[in-house]
Amino acid sequence: AQSVAQPEDQVNVAEGNPLTVKCTYSVSGNPYLFWYVQYPNRGLQFLLKYITGDNLVKGSYGFEAEFNKSQTSFHLKKPSALVSDSALYFCAVRSLWGTDKLIFGTGTRLQVFP
Amino acid sequence: DADVTQTPRNRITKTGKRIMLECSQTKGHDRMYWYRQDPGLGLQLIYYSFDVKDINKGEISDGYSVSRQAQAKFSLSLESAIPNQTALYFCATSQGTQETQYFGPGTRLLVL
Q: Chain B: which residues have CB within 8 Å of chain A?
């Protein structure tokens, strides 16, 4: 069965410091992996995705994510956090050979302090 | 994303009432989805539709029904609302297989 785990409910980081939001996955076959962000009272916004190719994926707002097949991870990173990055972040996975449904993690709340 | 709209944005209803949540999109996508979001549970798929004639149950379809009136419209109905259906509901769209889903702003539903 497909699954996604976001082991941290909340991540706290000081503005200007690097941030990492963790995600691990379990799928049959090769995965499609996504990161979405949800700001208060807003829908989910697409940040980036990995399909194939370069393991380091660059996305919106300066975010990037690294696909690690051996560790089945897809951690979201940013070199220098901004207070405006504070939001709820969701990792999601879809199997290339699955039922074409997107499976979401439970979300990680990122809090960036001034 | 303004290309995917949901109405109403907020709704309060009573147990046993029938309500409908509506989703419209101008992206021209063929696939549409309904999710619910509960704190600590992430998003769970209720129903999805790959085209107007194709409707599929998701993980938590009990107590819900859907209608795909046109390629651009996908409605979610709660036939007899109950308090544990209180949640934030999202519509999403995508084009073709393995593509990014784009979400509407959500409908916050409270069932008393």
A: 1, 4, 33, 40-45, 48, 58, 90, 92, 97-98, 100-106
Q: Is the peptide bond before B39 cis (omega within 30 degrees of 0)?
A: no
Contact present, A92 and A76 (Cβ < 8 Å):
no
Which residue on chain B is closest to A46 by alpha carbon? B102
The 10s digit of each residue's pLDDT in A25-63 is 998 778 889 999 999 878 899 999 998 888 999 999 999
* Nearest Cα to Cα of residue A20 among A79, A70, A67: A79
User: Is residue B111 within 8 Å of B15, Cβ to Cβ?
Assistant: yes
Strand A108-113 and strand A10-14: the pairing is parallel
Over residues A91-105, the pLDDT tens digits come to 999 865 555 678 899
Cβ contact, residue pair B41, A9, below 8 Å: no
CB contact under 8 A, A42 and B106: yes
CA distance B92 to chain A (A): 9
